[in-house]
């Protein structure tokens, strides 16, 4: 399907006026097309300045693809106010405003290997057995708490079991080392960006710059990212969240599809548009997939309809073992 084509449901999403909008998009339903058309529609039809639009995604690849597709739709060179990942946005925000919370503009960002090296040193200094108190496990627990916006003090005050008291001790020592070296880890980028945006005068400046917030793969956001997008939308409340609860893949980073529900609580006036048409798979495949997810009562499901022919029926093969499965 060409980028310039939009079906009825997609048009509803693209031409939504002001205010919060949730687009529930099934797999292969053209959600990326909706996002890029939303941006170009705001610019061409509503006179929105490109620099007033922010497009937040989870991968640089996705952001790059969307930027290129926007250029194909509009021959003019369009430069959005921001187009990239959450972490890239937060990193830039902290470079400019981090000094307000004690972060030097020249801070360094630790990757996962760097973080593990620091935590190994911490575990050693705390005289803990690294086989019993694994640095990776400590980091995973701390990461989850950071993404849930749990503070270090809160973790220390609520740690009842011995293991979690050690986690809290390790967290404090780990964070002290990061501060000493003017460093932040990936989770700190989100947490500190939220702290920055909670400062009224800074948030007002950012809200004036970025008046339209478009968020891809919203089902993969965690609490910190949810709070970040809410602060970015500000009083204008011009946020468009596109998500598919059946495709949540970042649970290891604290992602929670319940954020889709939290949107309804944060924005009582929230409009919802569903994209049930699938342009990728056959109806037999879609029906088989729906049969698997429809009984999951923990989150909403959407029955998709194929635009292609029915195709071949899906066959179920029960393998005897891993070797048989690999054949």
TrEMBL record:
Domain of life of the organism encoding this protein: Bacteria
Entry EC number(s): 5.6.2.4
Gene Ontology CC: one annotated term: DNA helicase complex
Record: residues binding ATP: 25-32
Keyword DNA-binding assigned: yes
Keyword Protease in record: no
UniProt family annotation: Belongs to the helicase family. UvrD subfamily.
Name recorded for this polypeptide: DNA 3'-5' helicase
């Amino acid at each position: 399907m060409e980028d310039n084509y939009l079906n009825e449901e997609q048009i509803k999403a693209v031409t939504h006026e002001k205010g919060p909008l949730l687009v529930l998009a099934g797999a292969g339903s053209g959600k990326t097309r909706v996002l890029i058309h939303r941006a170009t529609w705001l610019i061409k039809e509503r006179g929105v300045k490109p620099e007033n639009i922010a497009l937040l995604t989870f991968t640089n690849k996705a952001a790059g693809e969307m930027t290129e597709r926007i250029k194909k739709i509009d021959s003019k060179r369009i430069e959005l106010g921001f187009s990239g990942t959450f972490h890239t946005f937060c990193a830039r925000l902290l470079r400019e405003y981090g000094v307000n919370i004690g972060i030097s503009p020249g801070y360094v960002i630790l990757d996962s290997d760097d973080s593990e090296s620091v935590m190994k040193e911490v575990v050693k200094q705390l005289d803990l057995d690294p086989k019993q108190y694994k640095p990776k496990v400590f980091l995973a627990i701390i990461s989850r708490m950071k993404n849930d916006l749990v503070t270090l003090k809160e973790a220390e005050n609520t740690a009842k079991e011995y293991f979690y008291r050690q986690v809290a001790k390790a967290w404090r020592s780990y964070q002290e080392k990061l501060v000493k070296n003017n460093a932040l880890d990936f989770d700190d980028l989100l947490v500190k960006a939220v702290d920055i945006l909670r400062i009224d005068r800074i948030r007002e400046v950012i809200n004036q710059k970025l008046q339209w917030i478009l968020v891809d793969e919203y089902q993969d956001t965690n609490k910190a990212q949810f709070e970040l997008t809410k602060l970015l939308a500000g009083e204008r409340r011009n946020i468009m969240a596109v998500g598919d609860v059946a495709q949540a893949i970042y649970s290891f980073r604290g992602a929670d599809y319940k954020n889709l529900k939290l949107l309804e609580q944060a924005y009582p006036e929230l409009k919802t548009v569903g994209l049930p048409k699938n342009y990728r798979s056959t109806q037999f495949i879609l029906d088989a997939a729906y049969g698997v997810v429809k009984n999951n009562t923990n989150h909403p499901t959407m029955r998709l309809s194929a635009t292609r022919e029915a195709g071949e029926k899906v066959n179920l093969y029960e393998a005897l073992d891993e070797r048989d499965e690999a054949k």
